[in-house]
Amino acid sequence: MENEKYLNDLSEIKNLMNRSSRFLSLSGLSGILAGTYALIGAWLAYKTIYFDTSTMGAYKNLVISEEAVIRLLVIATSVALLSLLTGILLSIQKAKKNNETIWNSTARRLVINFLIPLATGGFFILFLIEKEMLGLIAPLTLIFYGLACLNASKYTIGGVRYLGLTFIVLGLLCTWFLGYGLLFWAIGFGVCHILYGSIMYFKYERN
Question: What pTM does this model have?
Answer without folding.
Answer: 0.79
